[in-house]
UniProtKB/TrEMBL annotation:
PANTHER family: TWO-COMPONENT RESPONSE REGULATOR (PTHR43214:SF43)
Keyword Chaperone applies: no
Name of this chain's protein: Response regulator transcription factor
Protein source organism: Fulvimarina uroteuthidis
Keywords linked to the UniProt accession: DNA-binding, Phosphoprotein
Keyword Transmembrane helix carried by entry: no
Ranges for domain Response regulatory: 5-121
Modification sites for 4-aspartylphosphate: 56
Top-rank taxon: Bacteria
UniProt xrefs under SUPFAM superfamilies: C-terminal effector domain of the bipartite response regulators (SSF46894), CheY-like (SSF52172)
Domain HTH luxR-type span(s) in chain numbering: 143-208
InterPro entries, per the entry: CheY-like_superfamily (IPR011006), NreC/VraR/RcsB-like_REC (IPR058245), Sig_transdc_resp-reg_C-effctor (IPR016032), Sig_transdc_resp-reg_receiver (IPR001789), Tscrpt_reg_LuxR_C (IPR000792), WalR-like (IPR039420), WH-like_DNA-bd_sf (IPR036388)
Amino acid sequence: MSERSILLVDDHPIVREGYRRLIESRTRHHVVAEAETASEAYRLYRAHAPDLVLMDLSLPGPGGLEALRHIRQWDGTARILVFTMHQTAAYAVKAFEAGAIGYVTKSSDPTELLSAIETALGGRRAMSSDISRALADVHLEGRARPLDDLSARETEILRMIALGMTDEAIADGLSLSLKTVQNNHYRIRAKLDAPTDALLTHIAIEAGLLGDVNAAAD
């Protein structure tokens, strides 16, 4: 495959450096830019128009789901490969619903990531083996999941609520009006039958939305 450009999105500089070296030493592709936040990812995507975005979901403030949705709104052809610690089927489903072309977990072998990059650049859906198994298990079980009825934006707002952010902080982070966030907050509670934020936080943790918080703190 000919040389392609990649935008790396992860809030840990050492992680970005490691994967930039992996990509540039094992493929013909190059990392054209690196971003730490959702807003920076959107700005750099517009500036560089990379062939692929390799994006973590856990970013400070608005997370990867919001960045993914925002980029895809601006460019419906954007190819975004999620690369994250989150290993739950629920999060993978939300990423695909938001427009991701692939989903690879950071616990996967580096060869799986490199293979997924080539697959995504070829315009095909890519998944690491653990996520493929998780999605297959959910399909076979046939049971409804707590996040099934939430949109990608509602899922992102739920994650931010679970992180302890106020409606005002969420509105500022997502560039929304306070009223819009409050309405979403109310709908999320109604959909999840959760009268308190404590219960919303419990649901978010159980669904794996905060799955790598402890890992990030280590």
